[in-house]
Design brief:
By secondary structure, the protein is an alpha+beta fold. The chain contains twelve helices and 15 strands. The strands form four sheets. It has a six-stranded mixed sheet with strand order 4-7-6-5-1-8, sandwiched between helices. Strands 9-12-13-14-15 form a five-stranded mixed sheet, sandwiched between helices. Strand 10 and strand 11 form a beta hairpin. The protein is globular, with a radius of gyration of 21 Å. About 3% of the residues have low confidence.
Length: 352
C-alpha cells in the first residue's frame, strides 16, 4: 500500500525546521549521530515520542512521501531518506531528547497549497487541520489516487502550481552574500540542465530518432534556440494508459523510433536526484513489459550518490522483474564528449 505522511510544523518549531530541513544541516564535524556518520550534510527532521507516532514512524520506509504543514497551508514536500530512533540525536539537533523519531528528508521542495484544497482532495472536512505526525488513511489515499495517477504526479502538480516560495518569517533571514551565492548556484544549475538537455536532443535528432522534450521545458531556450525546435510536441503512443502518459510527459528527453520508445533521459543538475529515478520506476510499474533504456544524467561528482540511490531496495524491487528495462548512469561529461564526437565524426553505431 502506498503511504503518505502529514507533518505539522508548529510555530515554535519553524526556526528549527528552517535550520535543519530548509537548509541542510552540517554533519562534517563531530556529532553523536552514528547513523549519519557517512554524510557531510543532510536535511533532518523528527517527531516526539508517543505510541501512535511510534506506529506511524516504524511503518516508514525510504522513499515514502512527506507533506509539511503550517498555519493553514501545506508548504513543502519531501521523501523519507534514512529513519532511526535516537533521543541523543534529538538532544543534539533541537535540545529535545523527546524528539527521538528521526528521519532525513530528501527531494525537498517548497510549495504553497491551501489546507482546504488538500482537504477536498483527501476527503477531509474543510476545516480539518492535521494534529501531530500522521499517516493518511487508505480511504484518503484512494481519494488522492482517483485524482492523480501517483503521489509523484500529485507532488509534480503541487510544484508546478506553486510559485517559487520563500516563506518570510521572523528568524528566517539570510545575509545578502548567501542569497547571492544561492541565486548564482540556482542559475548555474538551470543553465547546465538546459545545456545537457539540448545536447541530448541534438544527439537524438542526429541519430534519426524522433525526439520528445518534457512538456514544461519545450519553450526553454539554449543558445537562442527553443528546446522543442525540431522535436515532436506530443506523445501519441498506442497501448499506453493515461496514467503512464501522465508520468512520461515530464521526462526530460525521450528518443523514439515511430511510436516505440528507445531511450529516456532524466537530467539531474541539483543535489536532488530522487524524483527522476522515481519517475522512471513509476513508469516501469505502469508499463511492466516495455523494453526501454533509461538514463539518469548527472555531474560526475554525483556519480556515487546516483548509484547509491539507484541501488536502493525501493527501486530494485521494481526494476529486477522488468527484464527488458535498464536504468543506467551517464555523466554530463560523457554527454558533452559524445556530442563533440558526433559533431566531428558523424553518427555513432551505439550511443551510451
Amino acid at each position: 500500500m502506498s503511504r503518505l505522511y502529514l507533518v505539522p510544523v508548529g510555530e515554535e518549531w519553524t526556526q528549527e525546521f528552517d535550520r535543519t530541513v530548509d537548509s541542510p544541516h552540517d554533519l562534517s564535524g563531530d556529532h553523536p549521530i552514528d547513523e549519519l556518520s557517512n554524510l557531510d550534510e543532510a536535511r533532518i527532521w523528527g517527531t516526539t515520542s508517543g505510541e501512535r507516532k511510534r506506529t506511524f514512524f516504524e511503518g516508514m520506509e525510504t522513499g515514502d512521501p512527506l507533506l509539511f504543514y503550517n498555519q493553514g497551508e501545506f508548504f513543502a514536500t519531501g521523501r523519507v531518506g534514512h529513519s532511526f530512533e535516537s533521543p541523543e540525536a534529538g538532544k543534539w539537533l533541537w535540545n529535545n531528547s523527546d524528539s527521538r523519531f528521526i528521519y532525513t528528508v530528501e527531494d525537498f521542495h517548497r510549495i504553497s497549497i491551501p489546507r482546504i484544497e488538500l482537504n477536498m482532495i483527501l476527503g477531509y472536512s474543510e476545516d480539518y487541520s492535521p494534529q501531530g505526525f500522521q499517516q493518511i488513511s487508505e480511504k484518503a489515499m484512494s481519494r488522492l489516487l482517483q485524482q492523480y495517477t501517483s503521489i509523484e504526479d500529485a507532488f509534480q502538480d503541487f510544484r508546478t502550481r506553486s510559485p517559487d516560495v520563500e516563506r518570510e518569517s521572523e528568524g528566517h533571514t539570510k545575509q545578502e552574500p548567501e542569497l547571492e551565492l544561492e541565486e548564482e548556484a540556482d542559475e548555474t544549475n538551470v543553465r547546465e540542465h538546459t545545456e545537457i538537455q539540448w545536447y541530448l536532443i541534438q544527439l537524438g535528432l542526429k541519430h534519426n530518432y524522433d525526439v520528445y522534450v518534457a512538456t514544461n521545458d519545450q519553450n526553454q531556450e539554449y543558445e537562442n534556440e527553443r528546446l522543442g525546435e525540431g522535436c515532436i510536441e506530443n506523445l501519441n503512443l498506442t497501448g499506453f494508459s493515461e496514467a503512464a502518459m501522465r508520468i512520461i510527459e515530464y521526462v526530460d528527453v525521450i528518443w523514439l523510433n515511430g511510436d516505440y520508445i528507445v531511450k529516456m533521459f532524466e537530467v539531474e543538475s541539483t543535489t536532488s536526484i530522487y524524483s527522476g529515478i522515481l519517475r522512471m520506476t513509476d513508469f516501469v510499474v505502469k508499463v511492466p513489459n516495455l523494453s526501454v533504456d533509461m538514463y539518469i544524467v548527472a555531474p560526475s561528482d554525483d556519480e556515487d550518490k546516483v548509484r547509491r540511490e539507484m541501488d536502493r531496495p525501493t527501486f530494485q524491487r521494481v526494476l529486477e522483474p522488468a527484464e527488458h528495462c535498464s536504468l543506467q548512469y551517464v555523466s554530463f561529461e560523457d554527454v558533452r564528449d559524445t556530442h563533440e564526437t558526433v559533431e566531428r565524426a558523424g553518427p555513432l553505431q551505439n550511443v551510451f
